[in-house]
Design goal:
Largest sheet: 7 strands, mixed
Structural class: mainly beta
Strand content: over 45%
Number of helices: 0
Length: 124
Amino acid sequence: QVQLVESGGGLVQAGGSLRLSCAASGTTFSGINVGWFRQAPGKDRDFVAVISKTSHTYYADSVKGRFTIPSDRVKKTVYLEMAALKPEDTAVYYCATSRAVLSAIRNPVMYGNWGQGTQVTVSS
């Protein structure tokens, strides 16, 4: 199993930007889906974005147009660029990997390998 480490979280003002990193230790991300999910206090872990094993990107409606996974992902690091942040974006952000087919690529239950998470807090 690939060891995943998220970083880049922090405290930002509404409207600000952050770049999260998901780094793989020991193994590259080649040939797998790398997803971003988030979990706010008292809420379920929700899909945010994913870059597929064929390097296509997909986004939750709530972040579309604001968050971006660069399409030219590197083999050991996948980024999530977040802009125009809102207080409702506050959550622990996780990256995860999956070999799921495209139809299931947004489903967190298809992701079995998770990082420890990085906290993103957006102040108003």
